[in-house]
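Milestone 3.1: sequence recovery, worked example.
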């Protein structure tokens, strides 16, 4: 064995030796241990003792932590499998309110009455307002969903009349169920099929087969592709709304957004219940989303000529959204319209057109799936195939044409507004929502403008609320319970108020090195695995003994 401290070795020979930390990381990956554990200090309020605990990072990206990404992928697969082919309605019944919750709401009603009386009499309500804010916080902390204030901001009403270029959809009477239809075969067996739907965006130009790059990049519609990617999540919401209207029942779904080779997002959706394929395709063709934002046809500020932030502008009305300043035109000193003012102008214009209308493409794939079949398992694996990677990770690093295609897409997204708060609105003479000093066009830090996301800033996994009647945390708790039962350990209920968790500051001398922490976690994981294997062998032996006795 070669000693790396041997001075007789050349530099090249020493550099060729593996790094000990890298080996520890590879061992951790092989054993399914998080390679980026976060150290938290736990204080036991009952005993007064403190303990440093290694907590998995929980990242969903394989490039950052493959073991955590793999666990999250399996967790999503379990969530998809449990909710896809339910044959009974998920039980969602709220708990009865406790005495404490009742008392808080009643006390809140008394304080609200006192506040209203003081306001009617013209008295100062500052102290009562502070009491109401504190009560609302206590009500939320007491375990009640929602709030008592309702909508605090006025909702903008748009015309709900369908576009003339979109076909009408049938509407069935709504039934209070989440289950699809049941079919009975000739032999009396009942089947409850479900659907696997794939939706794509339209074409922006001819693509080279198998490569995902435009045949002619100069004629490829990058601006439209960028806007479609930015608003793809809203289009998916509209599709679900239309699907439920036509189906006539509360359709439940599990869907994932994945990248195509041409870098456009597309959707895979597992739907509980079934509908005719022609209806699904008609719904996709009739679904659209209109983006009612100010126009971006005219570029007013670019280069060195950018709006200037001023702290104390002369404004008669109070600052909207709590702004403490405004942007103005450096040449004329004119204040730029705020986001709300720009929308008000858009509402007042009867001839206004939406900034963009996004639709699905003509390619719609619909498959019928039965529970417990190989097709169902294959669809579940396909739904979770790319969840451990960002949209940009599908790029072929050895393909210059695809890298150039991604660079053009990123450039098309650079000055495209991604949200009402995007700094790119300054380029078109509009102040972003909640504007603040230091904003500049082309420097948005939003998720959509990062190259690895390719314009899509929404969630990668979309799950309806009544899919499996469990949250992701509850699915994770089920797996934990199974492991504890297999190990023969009791699942003790955790007192949420017993422990106080605090992050450990960087540079703490009491924290072991990353390599040492990984080694300890690997040893613990190996002990768990050995125990599980021993239990499995014992269970197998008992089954064999029972079979021999029966024989």
């Amino acid at each position: 064995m070669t000693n790396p401290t041997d001075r007789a070795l050349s530099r090249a020979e020493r550099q060729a030796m593996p790094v000990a930390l890298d080996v520890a990381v590879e061992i951790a990956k092989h054993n399914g241990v998080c390679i980026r554990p976060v150290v938290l200090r736990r204080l036991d309020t009952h005993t007064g003792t403190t303990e440093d605990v290694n907590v998995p990072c929980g990242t969903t990206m394989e490039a950052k932590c493959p073991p955590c990404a793999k666990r999250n992928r399996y967790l999503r697969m379990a969530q998809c499998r449990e909710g896809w082919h339910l044959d009974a309605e998920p039980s969602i019944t709220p708990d009865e309110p406790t005495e404490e919750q009742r008392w808080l709401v009643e006390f809140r009603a008394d304080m609200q009455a006192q506040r209203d009386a003081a306001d009617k009499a013209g008295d100062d309500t500052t102290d009562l307002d502070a009491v109401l804010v504190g009560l609302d916080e206590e009500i939320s902390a007491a375990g009640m969903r929602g709030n008592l204030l309702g909508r605090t901001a006025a909702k903008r009403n748009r015309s709900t009349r369908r576009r003339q270029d979109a076909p009408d959809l049938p509407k069935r009477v709504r039934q209070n169920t989440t289950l699809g239809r049941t079919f009975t075969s000739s032999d009396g067996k009942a089947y409850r099929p479900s659907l696997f739907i794939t939706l794509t965006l339209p074409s922006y130009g001819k693509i080279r087969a198998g490569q995902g790059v435009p045949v002619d990049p100069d004629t490829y519609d990058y601006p439209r592709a960028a806007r479609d990617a930015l608003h793809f999540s809203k289009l998916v919401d509209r599709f679900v709304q239309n699907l439920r209207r036509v189906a006539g029942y509360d359709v439940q779904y599990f869907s994932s957004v994945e990248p195509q080779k041409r870098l456009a997002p597309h959707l895979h959706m597992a739907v509980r219940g079934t509908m005719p394929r022609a209806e699904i395709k008609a719904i996709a063709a009739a679904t659209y989303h209109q983006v009612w934002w100010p126009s971006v046809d005219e570029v007013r500020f670019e280069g060195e000529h950018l709006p200037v932030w001023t702290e104390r502008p002369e404004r008669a009305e109070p600052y909207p959204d709590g702004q403490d300043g405004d942007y103005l035109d450096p040449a004329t000193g004119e204040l730029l319209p705020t986001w709300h003012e720009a929308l008000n102008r858009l509402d007042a214009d009867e001839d206004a057109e939406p900034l963009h209308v996004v639709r699905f493409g003509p390619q719609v794939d619909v498959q019928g799936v039965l529970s417990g079949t190989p097709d169902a398992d294959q669809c579940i694996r396909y739904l979770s195939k790319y969840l451990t990677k960002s949209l940009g990770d599908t790029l072929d690093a050895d393909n210059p044409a695809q890298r150039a295609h991604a660079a053009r897409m990123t450039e098309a997204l650079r000055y495209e507004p991604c949200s009402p708060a995007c700094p790119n609105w300054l380029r078109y003479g509009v102040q972003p929502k909640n504007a603040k000093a230091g904003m500049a066009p082309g420097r948005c830090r939003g998720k959509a403008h990062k190259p690895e996301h390719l314009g899509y800033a929404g969630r990668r996994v979309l799950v309806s609320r009544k899919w499996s009647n469990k949250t992701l945390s509850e699915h994770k708790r089920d797996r934990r319970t199974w492991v504890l039962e297999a190990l023969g350990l009791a699942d003790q209920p955790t007192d949420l108020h017993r422990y106080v968790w605090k992050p450990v500051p960087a540079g703490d001398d009491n924290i072991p090195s990353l390599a040492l922490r990984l080694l300890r976690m690997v040893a613990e994981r190996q002990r768990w695995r050995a125990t599980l294997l021993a239990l499995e062998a014992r269970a197998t032996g008992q089954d064999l003994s029972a079979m021999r006795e029966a024989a």
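The chain has a mean pLDDT of 85. The longest strand covers residues 38-44.
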